[in-house]
């Protein structure tokens, strides 16, 4: 469990810092005002400090929960035909746990990315003044609603790719191979869940007093006023960001787990 905690934290931080500019571009494309009105290509690192604070604990919470549930469910639901179900439930549980940590930092990050606030301290005081603690969890339900379908696609695919390759090669999957499988699985999941991400972004960026912004209300407003195509705003940067992010995230995680469990990295860990 300690290995999953540290490995997950390292993996999450590596991804969020390396790919932050792509995330900013994606977020600005999804805003109601549009890309250029939200800042265009300027200040693409706005909000990075917020992400750094929440990235490691959020990713660690995900993997600790994921690994724990995966082990427990594998015993309760034995059989290869049940493996996808085990991975779906375990990943969903991991996302629910991670979102308790991730959502407050995500709210601050996205509002800084789109120019609503210029500093973390100003964002914190303004959100607290407007909506209290609830303001930091604005969009929590929608984030979970986005992440569960995402992980139910990504992780069963990722685990299946690893299983097929390990059986084919007759050996455990190397971290660089896990990175490749994570990239493909993440890209597929990202494309399919982009509409949910757009709705989540709109909810988090809302400054409505009281913080009560409904999921269906937001979805209907986007379709009615801007057209269904708007639900796929930012799909390109999102797929690229998550494909690369998935390779780093899962590759670093597998490598870190190997190092922490075995005390060393295989010579093949990062050989391409």
The largest sheet, given as strand count, sense and whether it forms a barrel, is: none
Average pLDDT figure = 86
Order of helices and strands: HHHHHHHHHHH
Task: Give the full name of the CATH homologous superfamily.
Answer: Mitochondrial carrier domain
Calculate Rg over CA atoms.
19 Å
In terms of DSSP E residues, the strand content is under 5%
DSSP strand count:
0
Query: How many separate domains?
Result: 1
N-end to C-end Cα span = 29 Å
CATH class: Mainly Alpha
Under the CATH scheme, which architecture would be assigned? Alpha/alpha barrel
User: Helicity range of the residues?
Assistant: over 70%
The secondary-structure class comes to: mainly alpha
Overall 3D geometry?
A: globular
Low-confidence stretches: 264-272
What is the count of helical runs?
11
Per the CATH scheme, the topology name is: Mitochondrial carrier fold
Membrane topology: Multi-pass membrane protein
InterPro entries: MCP (IPR002067), MCP_dom_sf (IPR023395), MCP_transmembrane (IPR018108)
Transmembrane segments: 43-64, 239-261
Main location: mitochondrion
């Amino acid at each position: 469990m300690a290995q999953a905690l540290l490995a997950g934290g390292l993996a999450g931080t590596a991804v969020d810092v390396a790919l932050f500019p792509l995330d900013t571009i994606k977020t600005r494309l999804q805003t109601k005002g549009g890309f250029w009105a939200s800042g265009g290509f300027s200040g693409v690192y706005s909000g990075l400090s917020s992400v750094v604070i929440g990235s490691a604990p959020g990713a660690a919470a995900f993997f600790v929960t994921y690994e724990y549930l995966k082990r427990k469910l594998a015993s309760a639901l034995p059989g290869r035909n049940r493996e996808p179900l085990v991975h779906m439930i375990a990943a969903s549980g991991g996302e629910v746990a991670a979102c308790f940590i991730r959502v407050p930092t995500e709210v601050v990050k996205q509002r800084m990315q789109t120019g609503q606030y210029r500093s973390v301290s100003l964002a914190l005081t303004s959100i607290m003044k407007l909506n209290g603690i609830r303001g930091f969890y604005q969009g929590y339900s929608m984030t979970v609603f986005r992440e569960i379908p995402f992980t139910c696609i990504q992780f069963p695919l990722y685990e299946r790719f690893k299983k097929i390759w390990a059986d084919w090669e007759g050996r455990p999957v190397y971290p660089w191979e896990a990175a490749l499988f994570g990239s493909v699985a993440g890209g597929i999941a990202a494309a399919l869940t982009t509409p949910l991400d757009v709705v989540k972004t709109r909810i988090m960026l809302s400054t409505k007093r009281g913080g009560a912004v409904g999921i269906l209300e937001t979805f209907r407003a986007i379709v009615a006023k801007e057209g269904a195509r708007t639900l796929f705003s930012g799909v390109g940067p999102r797929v690229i960001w998550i494909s690369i992010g998935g390779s780093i995230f899962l590759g670093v995680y597998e490598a870190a787990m190997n190092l922490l469990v075995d005390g060393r990295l295989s010579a093949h860990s990062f050989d391409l």
